[in-house]
Amino acid sequence: MQNTRLRNLIQNMLLCATSGGLLVACGGGSDSAGNGTGPATTPQAPPAIASTACYAAWDAATAYNGGALVSAGGNNYVANWWTHNENPATNSGASGSGKPWTGKGACDATPTPTSTPTPTPTPTPTPTPIPTPTPTPTPTPTPTPTPNCSPYVAGTQYLAGRVVSNAGGFYRCDVAGWCSTGASAYEPGVGWAWNSAWTSVTASACPTPTPTPTPTPTPTPTPTPTPVPGLAKHALVGYWHNFTNPSGNTYPIAQVSNDWDVIVVSFGDNAGGGNVSFTLDPGAGSEAQFIADIKAKQAQGKKVVLSLGGQNGSVSVGSDAEATNFANSLYGIISKYGFDGIDLDLENGVAQGAAIQTYLPVAVKKLKTKVGASFYLSMAPEWVYVEGGFTSYGSIWGAYIPIINALRDELTILHPQYYNNGDIYTPFQAAPLRAGSADQLVGTAKMLIEGFTYGSNTFAGLRPDQVAFGVPSGRSSANSGFTTSADVSNALNCLTRLLNCGTIVPKQAYPGFRGVMTWSINWDKHDGYNFSVPAKAALNTLP
């Protein structure tokens, strides 16, 4: 009897050891564990360990929209706006810091441990003193997947080189901006312009996907932005002076030449706290006449928008409250005068990390919600704020890129100013391109449509219909960057038809390229319409 009790005690102790050494949980030292008259006490599972789970790991090849959740280096992050190839571990900051990511705290990639199953005790002791431990199950290996292409999903952000399947064929993305628009015209193998964005390939071009334990759900496609109705396919955009300068006095909108497709009224005023005001110059006539003139131009298919910035300074938008003031005050002005939208010529105060990089997009989105789908938005930063990021990403260099990225769906036209800032470096040759040359106009448009690197990041190309180039109307209207009518025509034909190209040639023709912006309508009239007449004639010949 004593030997039997001793043997039972040893067996129970060994069973407890194989269950994690929890002697108390097995009832070690208690009467029931050693009297040999019944089964051992059932061990209890250890308590679960609370932790914050890590989101899906950040991937440099994936483009993330605002609100996306990722993890990197043991921390979770949320995207503040559209971002691609910007590592959250090195590109994060507090909300309003101007960084693309905001940290959400540490996370634990290790799942909550599962307690080891408790072996069922043997009612009758066996002579073997040490029980054989249950072998660890061998997991079934994940089968090696065969090469395949994911189906095309309209609105997904596709990088150049990505291969998809659609309509029974396989297609490689060549122009990221077009591949990602979601527009039916660019649906691979189906849309009328699909071969402007994609190249047909065979199934052998499909990548072999990396096995993943849990498949990632296909995101809901982002709706294709509604184009601004009535905008000319190839537009001549000009700034109209709401002030007197050496070009002459302000004159009524009704007297603006019909060659202009978009009339940008310059400028709204900074009323403080994000608020915008507008005071009409008496030379434009009465407010009633001004409103009637705008309606008459719109009836002719023209757009009339209010520009912010320029010589009257920048509007400060540095908080959510100021963003609300911005939207409310501008909505009042738009409703009163009948403007189609706004133009952002804001530059003072726009720099890397400035609050305006975060809150200006918030303000514009609030304004569009009030105005509706017909809202027109253009941007006219000096080129150093956009393509300048290729040369040096910091301070003002490339500072508009986060704003552009956050407003891609709202943007109608981006027409940077290629004057007053010297020659321009591009990815296409070691030497800079001469400001105002056809090569410069083609090269910078090529960057905006086909994409370029800035810092350690990549700017994904815009749709061609969102891009135009900005040049001075004559030698009196700018200090540098003057271009000839021939260079304007050659650049337009090179971009839309691959004709009359110089050293810089696009990857392909972009027949939807939007057109030309100039400073200014008033200087052009002063100089005898030396710019608008030949520029409009060139635009009228484009496909």
TrEMBL record:
Residues 1-24 form the signal peptide. Belongs to the glycosyl hydrolase 18 family. Gene3D superfamilies: Carbohydrate-binding module superfamily 5/12, Glycosidases. It is an enzyme of class 3 (hydrolase). Keywords: Carbohydrate metabolism, Glycosidase, Hydrolase, Signal. The keyword Protein biosynthesis does not apply. GO terms for molecular function: carbohydrate binding; chitin binding; endochitinase activity. This is chitinase. GO terms for biological process: carbohydrate metabolic process. GO terms for cellular component: extracellular region. Residues 88-148, 204-226 are annotated as: Disordered. Residues 234-542 form the GH18 domain. Its EC number is 3.2.1.14. Residues 114-148, 208-226 have a biased composition (Pro residues). The keyword Signal applies.
